[in-house]
Design brief:
The protein is of the alpha/beta class. It is built from 13 helices and 7 strands.
C-alpha cells in the first residue's frame, strides 16, 4: 500500500511541476505587463479572491490615447506612439485641427470639407502629413495653380457618423464647402462594450454555476486558473455573441442621412471606403450580409495577422460595414453623391504594415496613398462639375 502511494505521488510530481510553472509564468506575465510592480507577481487581485472590480478585458482602451475633442484655440505636444515623434497639435476655435478658418472661401477658391474620426484628424501624424493636408497640396498641383483649393480637416477623435451629421447641420455647412468628403466607419463598430458585457456574463456563469468550488478557492487567487477561465470565456463568447453581427442596415441608413443633409445644403458628397490594416478575406465579396451566421463566421475567423482577438474582430466587423457601402446602388444616395474605394491603391503597396500605425490609423505614407487616390478621382471632374 505504501509503495503504491509513493508511486502515485511520484506520478503526480510532473503534473504538479507543470502547474507550478504555469502559475509562475502567469504571474510573471502580469508582472511584466504592469511595469514590474511586485504586487502583480505576489497577489495581483489581493488575498480575498472572488469578484474584483477590474479585469484584463475592461482595461483594453476603446480609443487611442491622445487628442480628443477640444474647443477654443489650444496648442499642445503629444508623443506619437507609432513613430516615437513629438507631434505638435493646434485646434481652432471650432475645435478642429489647424488654424482658424475663414467663414467663406476666399475669392473663387474651391473649399473641401473632410469629415471623419481620428484617422482624418491624424493622431499619429504631423499636421501637414494628414490626408486632408496632403490632398490640398495634391489638388493644387493637379489644377495647375489655376484655382486655389482649400481642404478643411474636420476630423475628430472617436467621432461617429451621427455626431458628424449634427456638426454639419449646425455649424460646418456655413463654411460653404463645395464638396464634403466622408472617410470613416471604424468608430461605428460597437463590439467592444457589447463583448465586455457578454464576457462578464460568461465568466459569472462559469464561476458561480459550473465551477463554484473553484470560484471560492482559486478564482483571483491562482493567476493560471483565472487567466485560463477568462480566456476560455472570451473564446466562447467570440464564437457566438450577437455583438459579432453589426447592424448593417442601421449604418447604411446613417450614411443616407448624411447624404441627405449634405444635398439639402446644395453640396456634393464623396464617400471614401475606409481601409484598415487587416486585409479583407476573399469570401467577403460574395458574403450574404443578411445571414447572421455567415457574418459571425467571417468576423470570428482566426488569423495569423499579429492582431489580438478583439482588434481582429473589430477590424472584420469594419470590413462588413465597408462592404455594405460598396453594395449601395448608385441611385440610392441621390444625385451629387459618389462612393469610391481605395482598396486597389492600398493593395498596390508592397508592405501594408508600412501604411498603418495600428489597425486603423495611417502612417504618413498611408495618408499620402489615400490622399493621392482621392485627388486622382476628384481631378476627373466631380469636384468642378
Amino acid at each position: 500500500m505504501r509503495r503504491t502511494m509513493k508511486r502515485a505521488a511520484f506520478a503526480l510530481l510532473p503534473a504538479i511541476a507543470l502547474l507550478l510553472a504555469g502559475e509562475l509564468g502567469a504571474r510573471a506575465l502580469l508582472f511584466v505587463r504592469h511595469g514590474y510592480d511586485p504586487k502583480w507577481f505576489i497577489a495581483p487581485f489581493g488575498w480575498e479572491g472572488g469578484d474584483r472590480a477590474t479585469s484584463e478585458y475592461e482595461n483594453i482602451p476603446l480609443y487611442p490615447k491622445g487628442p480628443a475633442r477640444w474647443t477654443g484655440n489650444i496648442q499642445f505636444e503629444f508623443k506619437d506612439a507609432c513613430g516615437g515623434r513629438i507631434l505638435s497639435f493646434r485646434f481652432n476655435r471650432l475645435g478642429y485641427r489647424g488654424g482658424d478658418w475663414r467663414e467663406t472661401p476666399p475669392g473663387d477658391a474651391v473649399r473641401v470639407l473632410a469629415l471623419g474620426g481620428s484617422s482624418t484628424l491624424g493622431v499619429t501624424n504631423p499636421e501637414d502629413k494628414t490626408w486632408p493636408a496632403i490632398l490640398e497640396k495634391d489638388l493644387r498641383g493637379r489644377m495647375g495653380g489655376s484655382r486655389k483649393v482649400e481642404v478643411l480637416n474636420a476630423g475628430r477623435n472617436a467621432e461617429k457618423l451621427d455626431q458628424m451629421i449634427t456638426a454639419f447641420r449646425e455649424t460646418l455647412y456655413s463654411l460653404d464647402p463645395r464638396l464634403v468628403i466622408y472617410y470613416g466607419g471604424y468608430n461605428e463598430v460597437a463590439v467592444d462594450s457589447a463583448l465586455f458585457i457578454d464576457v462578464g456574463e460568461a465568466i459569472n456563469h462559469l464561476n458561480k454555476k459550473v465551477f463554484p468550488w473553484f470560484y471560492t478557492t482559486l478564482y483571483s487567487r491562482s493567476m493560471l486558473y483565472t487567466m485560463l477561465l477568462e480566456k476560455y470565456a472570451y473564446w466562447r463568447v467570440s464564437r457566438s455573441s450577437s455583438a459579432l453581427v453589426p447592424d448593417v442596415k442601421a449604418y447604411v441608413e446613417r450614411v443616407k442621412r448624411l447624404a441627405k443633409a449634405v444635398r439639402r445644403k446644395g453640396k456634393k458628397l464623396l464617400i471614401v471606403i475606409q481601409e484598415n490594416r487587416l486585409p479583407r478575406r476573399g469570401e467577403l465579396e460574395s458574403l450574404n450580409l443578411k445571414d447572421a451566421d455567415a457574418v459571425r463566421r467571417y468576423v470570428s475567423a482566426t488569423g495569423n495577422d499579429g492582431l489580438g482577438v478583439l482588434k481582429r474582430i473589430h477590424s472584420r466587423i469594419h470590413h462588413i460595414l465597408m462592404e455594405a457601402l460598396r453594395r449601395i446602388g448608385p441611385d440610392s444616395l441621390g444625385p451629387d453623391v459618389q462612393i469610391i474605394d481605395p482598396a486597389s491603391a492600398f493593395a498596390g503597396q508592397s508592405d501594408r504594415n508600412e501604411l498603418f500605425c495600428d489597425p486603423i490609423h495611417l502612417t504618413d505614407k498611408g495618408n499620402a496613398t489615400l490622399a493621392r487616390f482621392i485627388s486622382g478621382k476628384l481631378s476627373s471632374g466631380f469636384l468642378s462639375e
